[in-house]
Design a protein that fits this description.
Belongs to the Niban family. This is NIBAN protein. It comes from Vidua chalybeata (Village indigobird). InterPro entries: Niban-like, Niban_1/2/3_dom. It is a single chain. The protein has 154 residues and is mostly helical. The protein has one domain. It is built from 7 helices and no strands. Helix 2 runs antiparallel to helix 3, helix 2 runs antiparallel to helix 4 and helix 2 runs antiparallel to helix 7. It is elongated, with a radius of gyration of 22 Å.
């Protein structure tokens, strides 16, 4: 009871007025990281479409879709997404000194984990909605892939 009132006053005066600007500042790198995940997924699926249009090979299409499933675990391809979030390191340094925010690396790591999880969900959903083995008409495969990609990105 004796701590509650001074703690509320401290939060109201010293923290709450800054929360909106802090969140806006932090959301820049987070949003750009998640946008990069979306761009990467889009790019990879477009490459699958282009490859299929050139080869019209259903076996190769299945291999490419299987390879897409490993995308969330491909650190080289996911690296640009993760780098966007590394900007939080600089932004959080200021918060660390002003508000005693600790475990900056944990915040960045959790954000990157969420990015990987988002990519896992995207490729899983893509696989569920599009199965090359169920495609009877190879002329419509590229169109179907594009529709599924757009559905996943939605």
């Amino acid at each position: 009871a004796s701590v509650s009132e001074p703690a509320q006053k401290c939060c109201t005066e010293n923290i709450q007025p800054f929360l909106t600007s802090i969140l806006e500042e932090l959301m820049g790198p987070v949003s750009s990281g998640f946008t990069e995940v979306r761009v990467l997924f889009d790019k990879e699926v477009n490459e699958i479409i282009q490859d299929f249009q050139k080869t019209n090979d259903m076996t190769r299409l299945k291999e490419n879709v299987d390879q897409l499933m490993t995308l969330p675990f491909n650190s080289v391809k996911m690296e640009p997404c993760y780098l966007k979030v590394n900007l939080l390191q600089e932004l959080l340094q200021d918060l660390k000194s002003r508000f005693k925010v600790y475990h900056i690396d944990f915040v960045i790591q959790r954000t990157q984990n969420f990015m990987q999880e988002l990519m896992e969900n995207a490729v899983y959903t893509f696989e569920q909605l599009f199965s090359p083995s169920h495609q009877a008409d190879s002329a419509k495969v590229a169109t179907t892939i594009e529709k599924v990609k757009l559905r996943v990105l939605k």
